Amino acid sequence: MVKKIEKKEYPIGLCLHTRNESGDGIKYQGEVIGVDGNVLFVQLYSWVMGEPTIVKAMTKDFVYSDKCILYATNTDMNSEYDKHYAIKREK
Fold this sequence. Notes:
The structure is a single chain. With about 90 residues, the protein is an alpha+beta fold. Helices cover about 25% and strands about 40% of the residues. It has one domain: SH3 type barrels. Strands 1-6-2-3-4-5 form a 6-stranded antiparallel sheet. β3 and β4 form a beta hairpin. The longest helix is centred in the last third of the chain and has 17 residues.
């Protein structure tokens, strides 16, 4: 069972998906790798190969909003992604 995470005091290591502009899809996938005050540094990963691409700065307010989904592990994040797109393919 995938555990979605709520706000966490020390977020390093959490994985995340950001929602696209319409809210019905996923824009970015990544992992929190650093914190500086109200800014989280998120290592983004390629959709095709799963390799690290760039590090993107995101505010805590953004990451803890309904525009992001947080996961305890990379496995949880990948499982949720697979489930999301399996449902889309069935439609």
